[in-house]
Specification:
Number of strands: 36
Largest sheet: 12 strands, mixed
CATH class of the largest domain: Mainly Beta
Number of domains: 2
Shape: globular
Distance between the termini: 34 Å
Number of helices: 4
Radius of gyration: 25 Å
Structural class: mainly beta
CATH architecture of the largest domain: 5 Propeller
CATH superfamily of the largest domain: Glycosyl hydrolase domain, family 43
Length: 561
């Protein structure tokens, strides 16, 4: 149906809505028959609002970079990224694809404009323990303790074995220097070399608990690549008596030899891999997150294990007969290259791993790298770029991630000034099931679990969802996340009524970009996306559907100031 014809018909018609019944409740709301039709303002596309579908040119979207972002993988060429945040400034460090003998840093305040600062640490300036011919610095992370900035990293020593160490500076942009004092000599020796273990170390990360105790987690390599932890005595000294093996590839916990998590054991790698740890605490639990499979593998994912204490025992969620039960983010892995999962995800995302968590204002984000080539399927080198997405916690405190994304997403409120009004608003509707799922932040990501019940089910024929705010807000944008399932996604919305006379009719879903019909696949976290150009305030939004066969959506985000 053409938009011009639809709008002409609407202008000649009387639009009637049924009374509102809350999902399973008795709430009644006003209907359009109670409103003066003469006060209706049919918002004009590209004048009063932008339907971003109309800004898709067949290859890319045009969008306002002060409100939206998209993981295009073209700004920050840093594998193994870490984001340090200070006073609204984001310092991104990682393994340098420009020259992995040094540490580079990209600085931004808006995730649009980046200032590159090269070689904030160059070990060859100091003639230290790092191999002069092949230092190969990996996976740096930046922290500030007591006014001193510390850069944790791994490098190859004289025997070409990777070791972990730390350098220090009085400025986040360096220059960083080896730590040498009465207690340690970080010039001639790596500071985190376990005297009882000859194994190589890499991917060091630091966690400070609520009681002020510090812990380091890093990866070691033996017959497999696994994760260990140790308590720190200071930012540059470890208490090796606390050293403990924590996460082993495929094993439910470190005390088990049985490898039940087959998705962590993709066979293209020379050895089995769990690496790149990061710790986050929630609800009194410790979530040790990490990447499984190899960095150049398509199925380089972010998984997690959980414990009651910072040094374990850590247990990976597992349920017999189910797949990817401990997957936090990434492309679901399989050994079968002919599988549906393999074929469907091809072209969407590849190698989304080696992550960190960081806050933008009060919103938690996950930073990670992804293969520039989204069709990548090799164990050899490929370009990797920084990307980021949202992280939330469910009612039990378990983290979940909406991502990886390849779609237009709203920037965090601390950057855009617009917040998501939906989670703190009341919601009601008619001919709708699971309506509360529209504002729980959880977006089903296709193949992680059988989560169809976590979507909002829209009945056949007419239905609507109404979101009532606690007060009037200036509306800046709307995202209505579509179903993750190819057989139930929605192509068109009947109307969006702001309850103040302003109405949008027939916003479109960008099938050409988000839907791969030949694979029966819809990109995760893809949405109807609208930016409101006209300045007005509203205290509610009603979204109407008219679906002969019904359908589903995931989440509704209303951006307001």
């Amino acid at each position: 149906m053409k938009k011009i014809l639809i709008l002409w018909i609407i202008c000649l018609s009387v639009f009637v809505m049924a009374s509102c019944v809350n999902d399973g409740g008795d709430k009644n709301t006003d209907t359009d028959t109670d409103k003066d039709k003469d006060t209706k303002v049919f918002l004009v596309e590209n004048e009063d609002y932008i339907d971003l579908t109309s800004r898709y040119d067949g290859e890319s979207f045009e969008y306002n970079e002060s409100l939206w972002y998209m993981n295009l993988l073209d700004d920050v060429p840093l594998p193994d990224p870490f984001v340090y945040v200070e006073n609204g400034t984001y310092y991104i460090v990682g393994t340098s694809d420009r020259n992995i003998n040094v540490v580079d840093c990209y600085v931004t305040t808006d995730f649009v404009n980046y200032d590159a600062h090269y070689a904030i640490y160059d070990p060859l300036m100091y003639d230290g323990w790092e191999n002069r011919y092949e230092p190969l610095i990996y996976a740096p992370e930046m922290y500030c303790f007591d006014g001193v900035y510390y850069l944790y990293y791994s490098a190859k020593d004289g025997s070409r074995t990777r070791k972990c160490s730390v350098a220090a500076s009085d400025n986040p942009l360096g220059p960083y220097e080896p730590i040498v004092n009465d207690e340690v000599d970080g010039l001639d020796n790596p500071l985190f070399e376990n005297p009882d273990s000859p194994l190589r170390g890499l991917d060091a990360t630091v966690f400070t608990d609520d009681d002020g105790k510090m812990y380091m987690y890093f990866t070691v390599t033996g017959e497999a690549q696994y994760i260990v932890g140790v308590e720190l005595l200071s930012p540059y000294q470890a208490d090796w008596s606390t050293y403990k093996k924590l996460v082993i590839p495929g094993a439910v916990d470190s005390e088990s030899e049985e490898q039940l998590l087959e998705w962590e054991l993709y066979r293209d790698n020379k050895i089995q891999i769990n690496e790149a740890p990061f710790m986050i605490k929630s609800g009194g639990k410790y979530y040790l997150t990490y990447s499984a499979n190899g960095a150049y593998n398509k199925y380089y994912n972010v998984c997690y294990a959980v414990s009651d204490s910072p040094l374990g025992n850590f247990v990976k969620p597992y349920e017999e007969g189910k797949m990817w039960t401990n997957l936090l983010m990434g492309c679901p892995s399989t050994d079968d290259v002919e599988s549906d999962v393999y074929n469907q995800w091809s072209g969407f995302a590849s190698g989304t791993g080696h992550h960190c968590f960081f806050y933008s204002g009060d919103e938690l984000m996950i930073g990670y790298h992804a293969h520039k080539n989204r069709d990548w399927n090799s164990k050899y080198y490929t370009e990797r770029y920084f990307a980021f997405d949202y992280v939330y916690f469910d009612k039990n405190g378990v983290p979940f991630c909406n991502g990886p994304t390849y779609s237009v997403i709203n920037l965090p409120e601390s950057i855009s000034g617009a917040k998501n009004l939906s989670p703190d608003s009341s919601i009601s509707g008619n001919n709708v099931q699971n309506i509360e799922n529209a504002k729980d932040n959880y977006i089903v990501d296709c193949y992680n679990l059988d989560s169809r019940e976590n979507e909002v089910i829209l009945g056949k024929g007419e239905s609507y969802i109404e979101i009532d705010f606690d007060r009037s807000y200036e509306i800046k944008g709307i995202l209505i996340y579509n179903s993750a399932y190819y057989d139930s996604y929605v192509l068109e919305i009947e109307y969006i009524d702001f309850g103040n006379g302003n109405v949008i009719y027939y916003p479109q879903f960008c099938e050409d970009f988000y839907v791969k019909t030949e694979k029966s696949f819809i990109y995760p976290c893809s949405a109807f996306t609208l930016e409101i150009l006209k300045s007005f305030k509203a205290d509610s939004v009603k979204i109407g559907f008219n679906l002969p066969d019904g359908g589903s959506i995931n989440e509704i985000v209303i951006l307001g100031k």
